[in-house]
Amino acid sequence: MSRCLTLFRKTLHGVRAQQLRPARAFIPQHVRSMVFMVAFTLNIGPDSRIRPKDTRLARQCPPETALRVLAMAEPVEETYAVMMLLAKLNVAAVLAASLSAVSAQTFQRLGTCPTLGCVLPPDQSDFLPGQLFDLRVEVHAPVNGSEAAHDGKPDEDFKVTIAKEGKPPEDITTAFKIAEPKLEKWTFKWYEDLFAQDKKTPSVVNVASKAYRKLSLNETGKYTVTLEYYNGEKTAAEWFVRPIAKKRKAKNVIFFIGDGMTTNMVRQDQFPLFPLIDRVQITAARLLGHKSINGKYQTRMQMDEFPVLGHQMTHSIDSYITDSANSASALYSGHKSTVNAMGVHADSSPDPFDDPKVETIVEIFRRITKGAWGAVSTAFLADATPIALTGHTRRRAEYGALIDQALHGLTNYSWTQHDGPDVFFGAGAEQFYAGKGSYQGKDYYEAFANKGYTISLNKTALDKIDVSKRALGVFCQSNLPVWLDRNVYPENLKDFKNDPKGGNDSALDLPGLKEMTLKAVEVLHERGGDKGFFLMSEAASVDKQMHALDYDRALGDLLELDDTVRATIKQLEEMDILDETLVIVSADHGHGFDVWGSADTEYLAQQKDDRAKRDAIGVYEKSGLSQYTSQQPNKINYGTGVNFPSDWEPRYAIAGGVGAAPDHREDYKVHKAGPRLPAVPGPHGHEHVVNAEDGVDGFIVNGTLPTGEAQGVHSLTDVPVFAMGPCQESFGGTYNNVDVFYKMAACLGLARPHERH
Question: Which residues bind Zn(2+) (predicted)?
Answer without folding.
Answer: 259, 543, 547, 588-589, 714
